[in-house]
Amino acid sequence: MSTPDFAAPKTGTTMAAGRGDVGAASSVLREPTGPTIPLNRLAPEAALRRLELTVVRRLEGFLQGDHLGLLPGPGSDLNDARLYVPGQDDVRRMDWAVTARTTVPHVRDTMADRELEVWALLDATPSMNWGTAGVTKRDLGIAAIATLGFISQKMGDRFGGMVMHSDSVRRYPARSGRQALYGLLGKLLDDPIERDNQGSGVGLPDGIEALIRTQRRRGMRIVVSDFLQPGDQVLDPNVPPDWERPLRRLAVRNQVLCIEVVDAGEVEFPDVGELLIRDPETDFARYVNTSDARARRMIDAASQAQRQRVDQAMRRAGVGHIRLQTDRDWVADIARFVLTYRRTAAVLHQPPQGVSK
Amino acid sequence: MNPGNPTEFLWWEFFDIRWLWCLVILPILVIAYILLLRLKRNRGMRYTQTGIVGAVLPRQSQWRRHVAVAMTLCSLVAITGAAARPVGVEKVPRERATVVIVLDQSLSMQATDIAPNRMDASRQAAKDFIDQLPAQYNVSIVGLSGTSGMLVPPTNDRALLDRVIDGMDLRDGTAIGDAIMASLSAIAQAPGEEGEEPAPAIIVLLSDGQNTAGNTDPMSAAAAAKAEEVPIHTIAFGTLNGYVDIDGQRANVAPDTALLADIAQASGGRALDAKSADQLDNVYQDMRSEVGYEEVKKEVTARWALYALAFAVVAALGAVSMAARWP
């Protein structure tokens, strides 16, 4: 009989925090072979029950949902009686009692009962299969989807997912219930890791277009990406990135949340001596002396300018923006965002001029 | 240890040339290096924001990497050469030699362009030269004039030589070819043990004028000296505007440097010229290193190994400077 192991389980997500293995750091050398985080550690489901995403845009659906629409529509809750508008209102909904009492035709209005349909687009291009801390950017994105999914788990709400590779966009249909959500998350995690420098052609704009094309109901859309275009060198915030236009179109009918996933190695260029740096998506390969403090400063400043450009583009498109970092606790970051979002959502998601909510 | 026969390969001679077959590996290494440079996409660190890295990064020099590789290759070449036992030339003092000094005693030697006159300056310099030669060398004196002939057969009696030089008188004519032939016959008279090969011989020819007389053409005499492996070192003595007054007529007696240089080249010696007594002393100094030392081929493996080590150290420093993060 072997002696039982009474040692405390390893905790933490980085080596410094006591984790035995190197986490996702081997993704710096080669593509990861699988997910770097198990399904049961994606999000603390029970702790998220009390959070709720504020939905301010118009929704569609038939069920007795938790999301009250801002406009009246077909439903079962009686709301009020109002004047009958010929040609617009159904005569079957005529409120005869009020009509008789006022001698003016009235219809009975019902409170719209909506269900929320959430679609998440996960960018799984090779630049997302990278991370210097505990998880890769792709797995952090899946964890963010899981967190938002558990937050939006209300009766009848449905959650669907799309995975964008550099050659195709894969779609997992929207289903309701937490088992379906777990199934979706498992599928996202098991989605094959893309090899470096393989096919190309599908970029983030195409992924967002696919999200626009497949939508049938209004609802919430979540775009998870690093919002880095391969080989993009523009730093001027006034030049819109090429995903801004599709994102605006997506935001016309939907409430859009963008989750930008960054890594500490991108925020602060590492000091690791002279090494060959290559890009997993482009054919860039160059020896860089990372010990050069001036070069590191310049790169850090440039990447900060790039993130500001992403910020501005999202503000112009009128979408919510969460920035998550692989070496931080994403649940805390998302919870903080959701609490603030309750107050700011109505202002943030003002629809474009001439578009109803 | 028997050094064996040296074989020349490219610019250097080696005793054991078979080792140089190892150099065949070098082109393979170079090709491998170039191939690795081509395949570098498969190595290196993945990084995502390479667009801005490429745009923003200042130009960083890459020469250290290539210098390290080149130094490694140089080190391999040097170590392979060292294994092949390279041949170096070293100057060793001669054990024995026969030196024939041909002194001009023609009338042109009375010119006074060199103080006090050419003859006296030449005598003094020649005596100094003979005094500084190693004592076991045999020295012979040949007078150069219209009737050139051996004055002293090869001997190591320095006092006799001094006396003969002091007693040289001026004569008419200059027969360089005859003087060379007389020198060769003097060399043949050099004393030596039976069965021992004769000591190496050297002719030092000092002349200050044109070849005017003689039965032998100077160039054919030089060829004869070459055939007997006797180098002739020539000294053209005097200035271009030296003159003598003979029978009331003034004659220009410039040395024939072209002819002397041809003689030296044909026989494998050196051609020098002296325009003053000081220069003549310097020329005789040069002559002493020619006469007193011989060049011997020796193995210089250690020096090549040192070169290989130096190259290897430079290559290692280059590699370390790239790999390490200096604090």
Structure characterization notes:
The complex is a heterodimer of chains A (357) and B (327). Chain A contains eight helices and twelve strands. With 357 residues, chain A is an alpha/beta fold. Chain A has two domains: 240 residues, von Willebrand factor, type A domain (Rossmann fold), CATH 3.40.50; 40 residues, no CATH class. A six-stranded mixed beta sheet of chain A has the order 7-6-5-8-9-12, with helices on both faces. In chain A, strands 1-4 form a two-stranded antiparallel ribbon. In chain A, strands 2-3 form a two-stranded antiparallel sheet. In chain A, a hairpin with a 4-residue loop joins strand 6 and strand 7. The longest helix of chain A has 25 residues. Chain A starts with 66 loop residues before the first strand and ends in a 9-residue tail after the last helix. About 4% of the residues of chain A have low confidence. By secondary structure, chain B is α/β, with parallel strands linked by helices. Chain B folds into two domains: 88 residues, no CATH class; 205 residues, 3-Layer(aba) Sandwich (Rossmann fold), CATH 3.40.50.410. Chain B has ten helices and 13 strands. Chain B has a six-stranded mixed beta sheet, with helices on both faces. In chain B, helix 4 packs antiparallel against helix 5 and helix 7 packs parallel to helix 8. The longest helix of chain B has 23 residues. Chain B is elongated and about 100 Å long. The model of chain B has no long low-confidence stretch (mean pLDDT 82). At the A-B interface, strand 10, strand 11 and helix 7 of A face strand 3 and helix 2 of B. Strand 10 of chain A pairs parallel with strand 3 of chain B.
